[in-house]
């Protein structure tokens, strides 16, 4: 399978990427969107030039340009922001630098410097005034943002109270993503029964950043803490640790203890955490700020109300959803032993096949264990498994490795190593068997590739989402299910345009994975 065989699918993917980017930019001010429109124009120009010079590679070039100029930089910055939250400073800076190399926009070029400024603020250091002036000259609103950020990290609640006092400026700040800072102010200082629910409702309506899983997880952990629900806070901390920055889990538990009236236990929790994170500059500064907040600004917790009880129940559900979906974003703390072992095995087998002969030659692939559909018998049933470790070319291998990582990083932590392995092997073998049984005797074929097994993991992933009623009832869960269905729909389109791809293997693997996923899904713990 070469690049020219995938010309139409690549064109389809490039068109989808361009369309999504254009829709995202349609309401953006020209001053902020012009460099993105320039990137879209570059992708179109590269596609036109390739169509003129080498039409068979138009799709590959257009998709590579769209990936490099549109998708990849955005994903890198998203991952950099997550790494920054988790305290992985070197990783955040490395990803920001890569994004700056890939995209010409000033926002990307300046992101590494902005990250360094944020890191100095988070460490409790006074940043270089010239650095602040540099960013303020580009965006005057940034001066106000930096000041709020500094007050937030200093734990200067009087300054934050003054900033959020006026309704109109507060609305702008919440729209700019400062809802959690406003909730923190109310959560520490307010003892009125309805104050926290009112503040929560205001920020949920106005702060768009709460749509992100990271912000939602912080909200889910800290809101019970502000209501002195220590047991619930601990449960949410345990479930949502992949989303929390270093020291944040201990801070939430300490807040819950302090609001419940046990300030000595809260300070002990913080002191223990300070010792544990003594080498982490950011975590140490964060815990010192929380210690000051609890000793200087703490108000008694408000008495429970029916409204707060309903909100806590909502956050219980949110915690379960976020914990289940964390693995979809590669946040699982479990090591992907099976996934990486399978990826290594696929790569090594391809290397051995390529070293000992032509990896595209049918006779050579058959000698290594490929499945020839007319010859399937009991004595050759072993080929149902060996064929899943062979690939017809490096492009075939790369696509399957990407699919293996995408599905494996969810399925393995969710089902466990053993069950995920059973799903993978069963889907691979049964998808090959389906191809052999349904093959046209007049058109024999040689079957190789792990795509049937990988689609089995995809089916198990869909089964995992469908087997949780709570996921189906939430926006996040439905979005993940829609995303999977769109992905499978694109694969169907790919199957219809490339003759070398077996749609039977994909459909069979998907159905086997779906059935085994429903059968083997872990029970919900109550």
Please tell me about this protein's structure.
The chain is mainly α. Helices cover 73% and strands 1% of the residues. It has 27 helices and two strands. It has helices at 7-25, 30-53, 58-86, 89-102, 106-109, 111-122, 129-138, 141-154, 157-163, 167-175, 179-189, 195-206, 213-226, 230-239, 248-259, 263-276, 281-296, 306-325, 337-356, 362-367, 383-386, 394-415, 417-438, 451-466, 469-472, 475-497, 503-520; strands spanning 371-372, 446-447. A two-stranded antiparallel sheet has the order 1-2. The protein is globular and about 80 Å long.
Give the SSE map.
Layout: H1 7-25, H2 30-53, H3 58-86, H4 89-102, H5 106-109, H6 111-122, H7 129-138, H8 141-154, H9 157-163, H10 167-175, H11 179-189, H12 195-206, H13 213-226, H14 230-239, H15 248-259, H16 263-276, H17 281-296, H18 306-325, H19 337-356, H20 362-367, E1 371-372, H21 383-386, H22 394-415, H23 417-438, E2 446-447, H24 451-466, H25 469-472, H26 475-497, H27 503-520
Antiparallel strand pairs: 1-2
Helix pairs in contact: 1-2, 1-3, 2-3, 3-4, 4-6, 7-8, 11-12, 11-13, 13-14, 13-15, 13-18, 14-15, 15-16, 15-17, 16-17, 19-22, 22-23, 22-24, 23-24, 23-27, 24-26, 24-27
């Amino acid at each position: 399978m070469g690049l020219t065989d995938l010309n139409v699918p690549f064109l389809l993917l490039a068109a989808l990427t361009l369309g999504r980017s254009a829709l995202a930019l349609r309401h953006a001010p020209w001053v902020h969107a012009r460099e993105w429109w320039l990137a879209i124009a570059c992708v179109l120009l590269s596609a036109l030039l390739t169509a003129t010079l080498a039409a068979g590679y138009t799709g590959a070039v257009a998709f590579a340009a769209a990936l490099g100029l549109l998708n990849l930089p955005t994903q890198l910055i998203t991952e950099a922001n997550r790494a920054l939250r988790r305290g992985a400073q070197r990783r955040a800076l490395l990803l920001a630098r890569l994004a700056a190399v890939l995209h010409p926009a000033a926002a990307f070029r300046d992101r590494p410097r902005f990250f360094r400024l944020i890191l100095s603020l988070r460490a409790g250091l006074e940043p270089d005034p010239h650095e602040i002036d540099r960013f303020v000259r580009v965006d005057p609103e940034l001066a106000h943002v930096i000041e709020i950020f500094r007050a937030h990290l200093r734990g200067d609640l009087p300054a934050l109270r003054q900033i959020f006092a006026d309704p109109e400026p507060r609305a702008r700040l919440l729209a700019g993503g400062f809802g959690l800072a406003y909730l923190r102010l109310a959560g520490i200082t307010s003892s009125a029964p309805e104050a926290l629910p009112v503040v929560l409702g205001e920020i949920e309506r106005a702060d768009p950043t709460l749509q992100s899983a990271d912000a939602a997880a912080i909200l889910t952990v800290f809101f019970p803490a502000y209501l002195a629900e220590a047991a619930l806070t601990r449960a949410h901390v345990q479930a949502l640790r992949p989303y929390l920055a270093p020291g944040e889990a201990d801070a939430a538990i300490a807040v819950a203890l302090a609001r419940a009236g046990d300030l000595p236990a809260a300070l002990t929790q913080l002191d223990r955490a300070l010792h544990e994170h003594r080498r982490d500059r950011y975590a140490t500064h964060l815990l010192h700020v929380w210690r000051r907040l609890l000793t200087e600004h703490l108000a008694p917790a408000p008495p429970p109300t029916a409204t707060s009880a309903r909100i806590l129940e909502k956050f219980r559900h949110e915690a379960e959803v976020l914990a289940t979906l964390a693995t979809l974003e590669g946040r699982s703390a479990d090591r992907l032993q099976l996934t990486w072992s399978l990826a290594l095995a696929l790569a090594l087998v391809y290397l051995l096949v390529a070293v000992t002969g032509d990896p595209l030659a049918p006779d050579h692939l058959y000698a290594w264990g490929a499945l020839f559909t007319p010859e399937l018998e009991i004595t050759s049933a072993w080929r149902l498994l060996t064929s899943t470790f062979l690939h017809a070319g490096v492009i075939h291998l790369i696509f399957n490795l990407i699919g293996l990582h995408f599905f494996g990083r969810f399925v393995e932590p969710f089902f466990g190593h053993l069950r995920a392995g059973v799903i993978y092997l069963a889907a691979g073998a049964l998808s090959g068997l389906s191809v052999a049984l349904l093959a046209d005797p007049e058109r024999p074929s040689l079957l190789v590739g792990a795509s049937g097994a990988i689609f089995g993991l995809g089916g198990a992933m869909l089964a995992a989402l469908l087997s949780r009623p709570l996921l189906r009832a939430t926006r996040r869960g439905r979005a993940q299910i829609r995303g999977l269905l769109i992905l499978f729909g694109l694969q169907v389109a790919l199957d219809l345009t490339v003759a070398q791809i077996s749609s039977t293997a994909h459909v069979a693997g998907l159905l086997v994975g779906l059935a085994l996923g429903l059968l083997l899904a872990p029970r919900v713990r109550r």
